[in-house]
């Protein structure tokens, strides 16, 4: 039996789809990012702040090593680090460049160095997963006291762990544990030692298995996946089934008779948001965004509040969710399940068919969702505007409403959303959509059976537009009332140096890109490329490159930043933005709900000074970044298992960068980036040269038949090539190799994304 798993990073309001960390508002899509390093056990230098949201706010794509390779990745000149191959000719220009006096080098080529003088706050969990080994020198004093812990993450140092922490028979039977994954916590790292000191925390199980690997990822990134304590659970309503207290009806606007419905991934159980759209006699519409009133169930200062604040976000893995709140709240009391009375916080507008706001109302409400639509249901309504959809193709609808009424509402919302979206991009918004993987899991084993690129369709865009509209409206409201105490979300402009490198790269490649603003960049991406397969692939590669200079979107307290120009959201190109629409899975949204309630006189202003609110914002940023990274690693884990179980996998790929002995590709069917090394291919020879300013590798393939002439292949940036992904002997590593020119058997990446054996879906 199969179970389709959508990408579940429920960020509907993708602030722009830029995930380097692309803020959600920037992206809406999440790239399964493989480090472009050579997988040769050399350490990565990864700037953790590179990873952020999947709400497409920041407009980037998760580029792990954007900073590592610096100019090297984008510019066309650069020498690859690592061993020089005697067979690879080096041009005179390069030789001269390498030997120049550093004083004569341009500033961008110099490696700046610095020294850590003090640790203000320990951010890393100090935990790592890895393997145990005996020390090499059996006669040393250390051998009798310690084993060597070798972390899977090469950024973490190797660690001496006391033998008393290790399994009893480890010293006599070390090979029995060669494939066992352990968790170690670093407790000290002396200045004069290459190795840290640590304690073995636990044995996770066999490397390469989903649950041990997942637990290791969660532990390394400090994700609390423990059961909620009895103290926390006591904060929940005890008398079940819970019903809305009568006094709430007198305090709230009753919308239970309205046609309100949810649109979510088919697998979603935490339904934060619902929509309504009522035609008005004058030709306009009353449109509502109704968000679960989670703050009602999370009393400020309670044990539940404290644990939610500490977790700060739900964490979406491929196979499960680590919730921010107990499941009773996430999936029952707060979730806007159909045909049940629910407490909500609503924003209701009068909108023209063109999306112009004529009036705006905020308030606490009670709704009764009439149906739970999936994105597929809503999409079929959009694609069949005049078709009567058979009841068996739709979920149940409450007796007070009809499927036709819901269909009309979806079509009206779609019409308005198209206008809102068009206007946003006219007004200068940016969106960097990147390829995002969705998996089909075997229902019994949990193993991935297939995968495909998740398609972001009109139904997703419909929901996104109204979530963005609500978030922007709430940001204006709370900032107007509490200019010093508003929790907002800003997206700084791209990093200047990296952007300049990208500008230089595009000039060298003859690409007419305008990077002067978010809107100009978006327009360039839309207009520079055609609709043929090659143009679409080039657009994917350039979108990926454009994501690298993008910064993270950040929560902040308005009273802490003095310069209001810094409040802006670069990708959305708006002066004020916040998160209001996902309080079941983001603590920042709960804080915003409390502020909005105070704005409307439902409660007192939370007793939090700006500095304390900023500290909460910083913590939300940290946990959000960790959550993003965990999500990426979960996707990488499942894809590596898929390659191992179903591989080798073939795909077309496009070259992103050319070095003197290797080249980087974006594998188009799966959205992964890999580096392909010349010395891993059956080549007779290869030659690196520059044609004008463009780097180029000429590969001469060893003929399979001695009677044949060797085939030549030229690899340059934006070359379309055929690659094969193969599992390596090492647990959960896979490599990419170039397919020999003229070999049969490759499917087009667009025609059959995934094939029968490789299928499905994240919101």
From TrEMBL:
<feature type="domain" description="RNB">
    <location>
        <begin position="252"/>
        <end position="602"/>
    </location>
</feature>
<keyword id="KW-0132">Cell division</keyword>
<keyword id="KW-0131">Cell cycle</keyword>
<comment type="function">
    <text>3'-5'-exoribonuclease that specifically recognizes RNAs polyuridylated at their 3' end and mediates their degradation. Component of an exosome-independent RNA degradation pathway that mediates degradation of both mRNAs and miRNAs that have been polyuridylated by a terminal uridylyltransferase, such as ZCCHC11/TUT4. Mediates degradation of cytoplasmic mRNAs that have been deadenylated and subsequently uridylated at their 3'. Mediates degradation of uridylated pre-let-7 miRNAs, contributing to the maintenance of embryonic stem (ES) cells.</text>
</comment>
<dbReference type="Pfam" id="PF00773">
    <property type="entry name" value="RNB"/>
</dbReference>
<dbReference type="InterPro" id="IPR041505">
    <property type="entry name" value="Dis3_CSD2"/>
</dbReference>
<keyword id="KW-0460">Magnesium</keyword>
<protein>
    <recommendedName>
        <fullName>DIS3-like exonuclease 2</fullName>
        <ecNumber>3.1.13.-</ecNumber>
    </recommendedName>
</protein>
<feature type="region of interest" description="Disordered">
    <location>
        <begin position="1"/>
        <end position="23"/>
    </location>
</feature>
<feature type="compositionally biased region" description="Basic and acidic residues">
    <location>
        <begin position="1"/>
        <end position="15"/>
    </location>
</feature>
<keyword id="KW-0498">Mitosis</keyword>
<dbReference type="InterPro" id="IPR050180">
    <property type="entry name" value="RNR_Ribonuclease"/>
</dbReference>
<dbReference type="InterPro" id="IPR022966">
    <property type="entry name" value="RNase_II/R_CS"/>
</dbReference>
<keyword id="KW-0540">Nuclease</keyword>
<keyword id="KW-0963">Cytoplasm</keyword>
<dbReference type="Pfam" id="PF17877">
    <property type="entry name" value="Dis3l2_C_term"/>
</dbReference>
<feature type="binding site">
    <location>
        <position position="273"/>
    </location>
    <ligand>
        <name>Mg(2+)</name>
    </ligand>
</feature>
<keyword id="KW-0269">Exonuclease</keyword>
<dbReference type="Pfam" id="PF17849">
    <property type="entry name" value="OB_Dis3"/>
</dbReference>
<keyword id="KW-0378">Hydrolase</keyword>
<dbReference type="InterPro" id="IPR041093">
    <property type="entry name" value="Dis3l2-like_C"/>
</dbReference>
<keyword id="KW-0479">Metal-binding</keyword>
<feature type="binding site">
    <location>
        <position position="264"/>
    </location>
    <ligand>
        <name>Mg(2+)</name>
    </ligand>
</feature>
<keyword id="KW-0464">Manganese</keyword>
<dbReference type="InterPro" id="IPR028591">
    <property type="entry name" value="DIS3L2"/>
</dbReference>
<dbReference type="InterPro" id="IPR001900">
    <property type="entry name" value="RNase_II/R"/>
</dbReference>
<dbReference type="InterPro" id="IPR012340">
    <property type="entry name" value="NA-bd_OB-fold"/>
</dbReference>
<feature type="site" description="Important for catalytic activity">
    <location>
        <position position="272"/>
    </location>
</feature>
<comment type="similarity">
    <text>Belongs to the RNR ribonuclease family. DIS3L2 subfamily.</text>
</comment>
<keyword id="KW-0694">RNA-binding</keyword>
